[in-house]
Design a protein that fits this description.
The chain is mainly α and 104 residues long. The protein has helices spanning 25-40, 52-55, 70-94, and strands at residues 14-15, 21-22.
């Protein structure tokens, strides 16, 4: 029999700047999140030296609101996606398809 032992890395406690030691999970999570946000910083938006409305013009594209037709998929896309689709069906039938990403 073969067993696999996974090493679990975890932080038992954190020392805060004032010397306080915290070990409760929720407090550690909050401290780490705050530290992350502070390190990430706040971006400052520089002054825009150009008029964006002169560069970008609104274009109406009502054709993008319509659904793809079966004929359009068959004609334009099938050759690009068919192998991926076949692989998906084969993995599903074999029971090896990981459906976890579909569930969020």
């Amino acid at each position: 029999m073969v067993t696999v032992s996974y090493r679990r890395n975890y932080i038992a406690n954190l020392s805060l700047e004032d010397g306080t030691v915290v070990s409760e999970h929720d407090i550690k999570a909050g401290v780490l999140w705050l530290s992350f946000k502070e390190r990430l910083g706040i971006s400052e938006f520089p002054e825009m030296l150009y008029d964006l409305s002169e560069l970008v013009h609104r274009v109406e594209l009502p054709c993008l609101d319509t659904s793809f037709s079966k004929e359009e998929i068959d004609e334009r896309c099938w050759n690009m996606i068919k192998q991926d689709f076949y692989n998906l069906v084969t993995a599903f039938e074999a029971g090896s398809l990981n459906m976890q990403p579909l569930n969020g």
